[in-house]
What does this fold into?
Amino acid sequence: MTRPAGGGRVGGDDVEDGASARSAPPPAAPELGLSPGSLAEARRAFAGDPELVPVAGGTDLMVADRLRRAALSRVLDLTRLPELRGVAEVEGGLEIGAATPFHALRDHPEVRRRFPALAAAAAVVGGWQIQERATLGGNVANASPAGDSLPVLLALEAVVVADGPGGEREIPYERFHLGYRRTALEPGELIVRIRLPDPPAGSRQAFRKVGAREAQAISKVVVALVGRVEDGTVARLRIGAGSVAATPVRLRAAEAAGEGRPWSAELADDVGRAARGEVAPIDDVRSTAEYRSEVLGRVVRRLVLGLGEGA
Amino acid sequence: MKARFAINGEAREAEGAPLERLLDVLRGPLGLTGTKEGCGEGECGACTVLLDGRPVLSCLVPLVQCAGRDVVTVEGVAATDEGRRLIERFVAAGGVQCGACTPGIVVTAFALFRDDPEPGRERVREALAGNLCRCTGYEAILRGLTDDAERPTVSSAADVPVEAPPAEAGG
It folds into this structure.
């Protein structure tokens, strides 16, 4: 592999070398692989060079062909930042470090107990090898409309915590995706945590992914639902869906069709119909618009039915 | 960039672009061709290796993330007693046909058995969900990795010695 003479070479954790490469950047922006060991260091590097390509699990980025990968020659490794890993208790919920891999989430006792929809999504993000590498923050930053965890974040009303030159700021996840693969992140900003507020007591959560096979398939339709039936009435309903629009979407018309009404099979039909009516999916290699609409309606209907069973 | 890391317990150094694939580093400059490239897109599992003990797809691991870490390939697995036994069971059950998926399955199964010495059939199936095989239909693989390995199988029936052709027929 060639690299320009005098290139800003950094060997893994060799941060001293990285610091000097940043302080005197050669004009041709030579290849650079930075592996900072703390968030403060990562923030400095990214603020100084917002063109750096952040890479965590690499499960989307690395799929790029050889030429494109070679063009991404200045890289910020996010896998060695302790601040971005793990699950922490916060008031009224949990915060997930952005670089926490899905395998750690599916196995985490508190995530399983309080956010079963997220644990369920984490268990179907690719196979074991993908789950060891792919991260929750990466799923958010990559901004694919098919990201498996993203409807869950919508239904849970998650908050994205970003860190950048201006300090930390919080962005409700619902306002994070501005369009197809476009996000609210500013230059030099990294996603550091995802905050999950505990849903009101008595809520149930559900998740369903429909793909070509059970494991290791990109979703044709993916739905998460969080809701509560109280005294036979749907007191609260939050539904997120993926692969049915240019971004993951909150199904507000479907929610409105259900909230405040008595839970019944007819109600589930109505909510499913509303869901189908409020999206305009596309035909692509994985599915057709017609299939997606139909299946979305049926999945939503079934999840609403499950919400009230035995309640 | 240069990265120093351990491969199968031995300190090695590799040079490449930050997003150079670990798979290419292994098969190229390091000469470890046991790891296979299948799809190159993270779909098939053929290139599975252990990174700090966890099964990962080496086609999706960039060199920049390898520095200072511990990589074990199928060659390293095969050098252990557990790995050897695993491979023998796999072969006995007829879990290998063309062999392209085999190293990835062996490495993944090695990680599974290390975590859980007696996984049930369902656990094995789930652990291997990311390893595609286009030949076997998976049954022989599952037999090789579960207690069903002891049962007679179609492939072991085929191991009945076949009489060598008469010498004159080869003349």
